Amino acid sequence: MRTGGFELRKWASNQPDLLSHIPPSDVQMSCSFDKEEPSFIKVLGLKWCPKSDEFTYSFNPVDRQCTKRNILSEISRIYDPIGFISPVILLAKCLLQKLWESNISWDETPSTDILQVWNRYKSELSQLAGIRIPRRVISDNISCMELHGFCDASQTGYAAVIYFRTINDSGQVSTFLVTAKCKVASLKIVSLPRLELCAAVLLADLLTFVTTTYADYLCFNSIYAWSDSTVVLAWLAASPHKWKTFVANRVVISKAKFSSISQVFFDT
Predict the structure, then answer these.
(1) Residue-wise over 16-39: b if at least 16 C-beta within 10 A, else e?
(2) Last residue of a domain, one of 135, 161, 195
(3) Which CATH number is 181's domain given?
(4) What is the mean pLDDT of residues 197-211?
């Protein structure tokens, strides 16, 4: 790329030996691996510590008047592209949903109930700094590699999460959080089994995304999809034509996604 005039800069690595061969002017920052205080680099909105090779978060709330506009502005500052803090994001989405239900103007102060939820939520965001997520999602000397996906739902929302489970040559088992995604439930009244089915569709999308992304790098011995809803398992086990449109459409989507992945086991 240098010959074309596209010289790469701002190099960063968790390996000091690699950075030692790169001119200091082309390095992202002078990361010292001897400091007690970790030095962080921003990567896609996350903070990455090269020394420990971990992702972390930080959030410094801005003290300003509590209005619909300012609450939305504060929540939009929480960037979570991989879904590591999906439970935190889901609560924020539910709060936004309540704001829209209240039908207040952009610069109007919300009701007392919403203010209490927001103030508590805002005060606890500083605890995100204590979260540490390893960047590396595999272990050494792997003898078995499994992919496990979980989905669940409530009347508030539904979510799905993906884990890697590895077993090395000595029999040691390790698990790694890979990605997650959450969605808030519709304002329309939807039964819990149907929300569980929506969670299964969300899991199918995540499984397809992860298996496609890692297809050229990892080989999975088994792929598991887990749900605690026996109703959803019955819907998926039967022919879609037996069910009403809402269920049938999502069963078709889920089956199409799962059929494209070899060795998928859906269980509770």
Answers:
(1) eeebeeeeeeebbeebeeeeeeee
(2) 135
(3) 3.30.420
(4) 95
Averaged pLDDT, 149-153: 95
Query: How many domains is the chain partitioned into structurally?
Result: 2
Same domain, 226 and 128: no
Among residues 148, 183, 179, the alpha carbon closest in space to that of 261 is found at 148
Please give the model's pTM, rounded to 2 decimal places. 0.85
Q: How far apart are the first and last CA of the chain?
A: 50
Domain residues for the domain of 245 are 136-267
How far apart, in Å, are the Cα atoms of 29 and each of 18, 19, 33, 39, 41?
14, 10, 12, 9, 8
- Is 159 inside a domain boundary? yes
Residue 33 has pLDDT above 70, yes or no: no
How many CB atoms are located within 10 Å of the residue 260 CB?
Answer: 13
Which residues, 6+ apart, have CB-to-CB distance to 102 below 8 Å? 110, 111, 114
